[in-house]
Amino acid sequence: MKFLFEVTEEKINNMPVEDYETLEMAQDGDVKIYRLRRVLCRFLVDENNVEIPHDTALKMTSKLKMPEMQSFVEQFMETMKAKAVPKATGSPSSSPLLVSSVDSLSQTG
User: Fold this and answer.
1) Count of CA atoms in the C-beta half-sphere (13 A) of 44
2) Among 24, 55, 26, 63, which residue's Cα sits nearest to residue 38?
């Protein structure tokens, strides 16, 4: 199973403050899966870049094992950092960034 994130300025700007605070706390090391999973699911898209409904995304991620969830969270954070890094011209990119976070739910690949 493959997960893709679409992180756009619009999605970030439309997040409730509570969700943004959850991301900030996670970046500061205060990671609470029960808070963070709900937020990350807002950014999940399928392979056609179609947003996955939040309830569906929550159900999908509820099946992850803890090492898979850790990888899922780490990949999202990498995606956020990559989105925040300016292009060579010094201006932020406005295009969506799609990044695979889990290629397989199996520990053996």
Assistant:
1) 22
2) 55
